């Protein structure tokens, strides 16, 4: 048995013509088609119903039935589920001993999105799309564009580079009016487009989004780490500047001396950034009642490492002697060991959380 199935995914039959679905049988489908065409002559779903009647009348060599099913106005999963339920009702009502196959009649790609739901219930012999000749493929094009614009991933991939490209000409004209070289505008926009493609290709946008989300959560949760991180970044920036300044102040002849000069200038500021950041994290863990005494090792380790690097770099540049370097290495090592042992003893005697039962 062949079932000619007319699909109205946005339920124009129910909303406009007041027809209850599913509609089964030639006479009932014809009545529903006339009712919809009378209510809204421009609705393409009436063409779907008439096409279903046309296919029904053309087939004379086997048993055939025509039916119409509808979804809901909002579309999506709810519409597909309603169509599936109505098909189940139709199949239960037919109850023939023959295998039931379907010919699906739609008015565009949007209604055809329900085909997997239909195929899960009965075999499909074919799909007939009914579109007004003067508007061939117009609805399908509209639906495809709508799907692209609704998808955040596709929207970001296509529209952002397209927007940057479209900005090249107006920005170049504006720059020419202001006396700015056009090559500078092209260079900036090309750099933006290149950075965007690089970020998308490497997946860095997810890392940035996660970082922004963590910062937002920390800001509203009152975490000290947010402030100390900003201060630490500023200190690192100052350290980089001071390191570059130290390069100009020293006459360096090889890569080792270049690295040593940069370290001498930058390491105090970078160490201050590390201590600041670690103190912020320790404060947050204390406020969240997850504090451990061993966490206090972090700022001590940072200070010890900074002292060692500064002494070694100064020795390589000839600014300090061997005795001072040896003293700094010994002091840094002892500071780390004493800190580790001291906080381990304190944690064993004054545990911050009760032992598990």
TrEMBL record:
The keyword Transmembrane applies. InterPro entries: DUF373. It comes from the Archaea. The chain crosses the membrane at residues 178-199, 220-238, 258-279, 300-318, 324-346. Pfam families: DUF373 (PF04123). The keyword Glycosyltransferase does not apply. Keywords: Membrane, Transmembrane, Transmembrane helix. This is DUF373 family protein.
């Amino acid at each position: 048995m062949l079932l000619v199935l007319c699909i109205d995914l946005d339920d124009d039959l129910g909303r406009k013509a007041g027809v209850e679905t599913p509609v089964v049988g030639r006479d009932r489908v014809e009545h529903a088609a006339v009712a919809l065409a009378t209510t809204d002559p421009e609705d393409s779903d009436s063409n779907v119903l008439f096409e279903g009647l046309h296919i029904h009348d053309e087939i004379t060599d086997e048993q055939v039935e025509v039916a119409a099913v509808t979804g809901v106005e909002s579309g999506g999963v709810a519409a597909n589920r309603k169509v599936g339920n109505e098909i189940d009702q139709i199949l239960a009502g037919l109850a023939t001993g023959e295998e039931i196959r379907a010919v699906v009649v739609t008015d565009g790609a949007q209604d055809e999105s329900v085909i997997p739901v239909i195929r899960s219930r009965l075999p499909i012999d074919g799909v007939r799309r009914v579109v007004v000749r003067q508007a061939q493929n117009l609805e399908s094009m509209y639906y495809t564009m709508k799907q692209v614009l609704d998808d955040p991933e596709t929207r970001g991939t296509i529209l952002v580079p397209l927007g940057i490209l479209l900005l090249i000409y107006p920005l170049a004209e504006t720059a020419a009016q202001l006396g700015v070289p056009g090559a500078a505008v092209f260079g900036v926009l090309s750099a933006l487009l290149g950075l965007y493609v690089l970020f998308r290709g490497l997946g860095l946008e997810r890392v940035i989004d996660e970082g922004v989300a963590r910062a937002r959560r920390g800001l509203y949760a009152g975490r000290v780490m947010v402030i100390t991180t900003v201060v630490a970044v500023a200190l690192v920036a100052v350290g980089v500047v001071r390191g570059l300044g130290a390069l100009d102040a020293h006459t360096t002849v090889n890569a080792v001396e270049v690295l040593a000069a940069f370290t001498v200038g930058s390491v105090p500021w970078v160490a201050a950034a590390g201590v600041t950041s670690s103190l912020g994290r320790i404060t947050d863990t204390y406020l969240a009642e997850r504090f451990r005494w061993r966490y206090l090792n972090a700022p001590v380790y940072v200070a010890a490492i900074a002292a060692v690097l500064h002494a070694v770099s100064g020795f390589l540049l000839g600014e300090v002697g061997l005795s001072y370097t040896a003293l700094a290495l010994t002091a840094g090592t002892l500071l780390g060991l004493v800190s580790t042992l001291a906080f381990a003893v304190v944690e064993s005697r004054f545990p911050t959380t009760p032992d598990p039962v």
